[in-house]
Specification:
The protein is mainly α. The protein has a single domain, classed as ABC transporter involved in vitamin B12 uptake, BtuC. The chain has a two-stranded antiparallel sheet with strand order 1-2. The longest helix is centred in the N-terminal third of the chain and has 36 residues. The protein is globular and about 65 Å long.
Length: 343
Amino acid sequence: MRDSLTLRSGGFSRRIELSTVWRLLAALGLTLMLMLGVLSLGKINLSPLTVLYLLGGGGDDSLRFIVEQLRLPRLLLAALVGAALAVSGLILQSIIRNPLASPDLLGITSGASTAAVLYLSFFSAVLGSQWLPLAAMFGAGLAALAIYLLAWKQGATPLRLVLIGVGVSALLTAVTTFTLVFSPLTTTLSAYVWLTGSVYGASWPEPKALALWLLAIVPLLVWLARQVRVQQLDDALAQGIGVRVQWLRAGLLLVSVALAGAAVAWGGAIAFVGLIAPHIAKRLAPPGFAGQALMAALIGANLVMLADLIGRTLFLPLDLPAGIFVAVLGTPFFLYLLINQRH
């Protein structure tokens, strides 16, 4: 029985492990089942068959409004945010060669958070909230640029990126806290919800905008994907086989920042997804960036969807931010990784 399939077309050649395909299909099936469950549960519980009937255009208009206009956009936004954070984390762990690397630990999320809080405090009253995602992405990019420039010394090594990233993250967190102290109470409350991470109140424009942004990033990610594993080699060895290590590392860092910045811009500063999902994906998918990236995207989507479901159903009538429940899972997982790294 064949265990792989090779695709060739002109100069393109790709070997696909069939076991990876089956695992991805199983993960996709679980994701679709979770989506159906999320659409079914809430203040008004519906059966999965009723949900499918409503999505097909039938049934009561009020129930169809609940599913199509209230739950479905929120579900899709949670899935896209989780997938983007997960793939961003996988890229960072690959280029930095550190299992503890993730967007929130290296300062990318902190940059987006600081920019968002500054915008909410000083500009939202004049410009409105529609520019908040752009401010968050600008902050993430600026933080990543600062980290890369500060880490540069005849090249940016993984160790320097980690150390500078942690320092920049701490500084930006202090700036965020300082800003919140001097902000109006209404701004502080909305900022805290955003900093925790929430997809509350999502409507169709949000997942559509995020999906378009992610689709624009995908071609660059596909182009660089085959080079990700080279980053796991020692820099001298990679240069010895003709790889332009620094240019490749900068390109992959740019993709990671774009993914994390977009996710944080529309979903808030949800922590630990970029740390947890890549580790689970590496256990479920064999070595190879493409398979692990797809698996990480599905796992990240499931994490945020499940966290949001718990937040809006477990404590009714309260609707709690999804980031709280991701952190509940992520904190012990992070401590587990720290203990393993110590040994």
